[in-house]
Design goal:
Elements: H1 2-22, H2 24-40, H3 42-70, H4 75-100
Helix pairs in contact: 3-4
């Protein structure tokens, strides 16, 4: 009885280890496919960030113009913050794209 249990256990171990070794190729193919999918999203995402930066720049320009026209002494601080945000978006998109691709 004991010998039969050992034989069944050894057979199960061999079958399970063999299927694990054969599954190695599919894992690398899946990783390559996932990498391809992620890198394909960078161009549209970069263009979207550039568009958001353009909208932020336009809104910032209007806000700065309104403050400048009304004679607000805080105009330079507002201009620096709005246009700094714009530049950050553009630079961040460019750096992320060059870093990951």
């Amino acid at each position: 009885m004991e010998k039969r249990k050992k034989k069944i256990l050894m057979t199960a171990v061999m079958l399970l280890s063999g299927s694990w070794v054969m599954a190695q190729g599919n894992g690398s193919a899946g990783i390559n496919e996932a990498t391809q999918m992620v890198t394909s999203y960078f161009d549209p995402a970069t263009k979207l960030i550039y568009a958001i930066g353009a909208v932020v720049g336009l809104i910032g320009g209007v806000k700065v113009y309104n403050k400048f026209s009304s004679g607000d002494p805080d105009t330079s601080k507002t201009a620096a913050s709005w246009f700094g945000a714009c530049i950050f978006l553009i630079v961040a998109a460019t750096i992320l794209r060059s870093f990951f691709l």
